[in-house]
Amino acid sequence: MEKNLPFIEFGITDKNYNNRVLPFLGNVDNGDLFKWYVGNIWRLLSYALLVGGIAITVAELFGDSGFIKQNLQNEALSGGKKAGAGIGLVIGFVVSIVAAWFMYSVTKKRTDQLKDQQYNGLLHYIFCTVMPRQITLIGELSFIMVLYIGIMQLVATLVGSAAYAPLLSIGEVLMSAPGIDTMREMLPNAIVGDYDNFDVNIKMALTGIIASVLVLIAYYIYREIYNYAIRIVTALIQFIPKFAIPLAIRNRSEN
């Protein structure tokens, strides 16, 4: 056991120093602290997507601005619109729960993969290990959300009324990333359908489904560009010559 205080041995401080301070510094040196920190942020994100997605799906049903009040109990809507909204509600509720679970599952898997990566220094860990996987994760979550929007627009088009899509707010957050934020303006505020505009709505739905794959491709291209830029920076750093000041000690013998 290492001694903590100078000149004397004091059991309480020595014990806590060896049991708490030294292990903490060891975790800093070997990178376990940084891996634990980043991994738990990602894990909390997965829980937030699951629990938050389910909570939003349930909460958006009720209240004055809820789906039930605005569509099923709206006296201004016809019986056909209400019936279509009822079908859109059932399908939308199920699809929203599945989407929340799927986003959680993807994030959980990427978190487990990140945990298995080796630590080769903080800079390498952040820029070469975490960042590429973070780009991938955002791309996969964005793919799920855009596909979700396209599917729900297709449902609304087929039933000719509103469809329940409470997870639109999550899509707005994901689409705020640089380089993809222009698509944020294309996200609808609500998912509605009308048989009078069937051709327009079906095109919107199919465009959303196709765009989901394009979003995923775009993020994978971003990751490749990022990795290429990192390799260039690494090569430039290695190219920088190491400067050294030559010193020589000469012994002079005097006769």
Task: Give an account of the 3D structure.
- It is a single chain.
- This protein has 7 helices and no strands.
- The model has no long low-confidence stretch (mean pLDDT 86).
- The chain is mostly helical and 255 residues long.
- The termini are far apart.
- The radius of gyration is 28 Å and the shape is elongated.
Main features:
70% helix
Provide a compact summary of the structure.
The chain has helices at residues 11-30, 32-59, 67-72, 79-115, 122-159, 168-174, 198-239. The protein has 255 residues and is mostly helical.
Topology:
Layout: H1 11-30, H2 32-59, H3 67-72, H4 79-115, H5 122-159, H6 168-174, H7 198-239
Helix pairs in contact: 2-4, 4-5, 5-6, 5-7
Q: What are the secondary-structure elements, in order, as H or E?
A: HHHHHHH
What percent of residues adopt helix (DSSP H or I)? Answer: 55-70%
Structural class comes to mainly alpha
The chain-level mean pLDDT equals 86
CA-CA gap between termini: 58 Å
Care to count the β-strands? 0
Give the C-alpha Rg: 28 Å
Number of helices in the DSSP assignment: 7
- Estimate the strand proportion: under 5%
Largest sheet: number of strands, sense, barrel closure: none
Give unreliable regions as ranges.
none
Shape: elongated
